[in-house]
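Notes, p. 3: input format for complexes.
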Amino acid sequence: MKDLLLVTDLDHTLVGDRQALARLNQTLGTLRSRIHLVYATGRSLAGARQLQQQEGLLEPEGWATGVGSALLWCGEPDLAWDRRLQRHWDRPALAGLLANRSDLILQPASEQTPCKLSYELAEPRTGPAAHQFEQHLRAALQQAGLQAQVVFSSGCQLDLLPPGAGKGAVSGYLQQKLGLRPDQVLCCGDSGNDRSMLGGPWWGVMVSNARPELLAWWRQVRPDTLLRSHHHHGGAILHALETLPLL
Ligand code: GLC
Ligand code: MG
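Output follows (247 residues plus magnesium ion):
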């Protein structure tokens, strides 16, 4: 049995510093028999595989794509995970509700999946303006009797996901599926869509180049199990592997 589930975001976390990535790939290569490696990304599977090719990323056991709205495990779609996502999820109704809003621009078809509805904000928002925007949107969904997670990233990206989806939920699902304890899980990220997995009951590492919305959350919550690394990108993941009591 392997000792560690390593779940990492791709853009601006694992990917962004080629030298650090090369060092990390080397370390992971030597530990490969002890680690379940999972990429958890906002990208579609096609987009994530393209990045893998371009950056020379190791082949993981799991791909949690579309912000944890789809899971490929050892090359096969995880059907039990898919079934969970169908609960309380009405994508057409959500899309209908938001169709006429001038402040939301639908992302391209390549970024839409059956369990992910994604928009760009017409005007980027940070700080209190971003918070207020999220609150208003949640209230509008509640008023319409619709359930969805509202995930806001990088000042301008908005994802609506089924209540059971997300990077945190998929990390917890895999932890249990693999029969690991929470302290045998490490999640790594940089932006708003990583918040759910960095706030879980396991280890986390936030890169030094984290986005403002993630930093704002961290300042409020400061989970004991989250390392705020002073290293950026892959260097922060190495930092976590070297300093946290993981292996
Ligand atoms: C990726 C996805 C996009 C999503 C964003 C934030 O960039 O391509 O659809 O909105 O991540 O989760
Ligand atoms: Mg990222």
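The chain has a mean pLDDT of 96.
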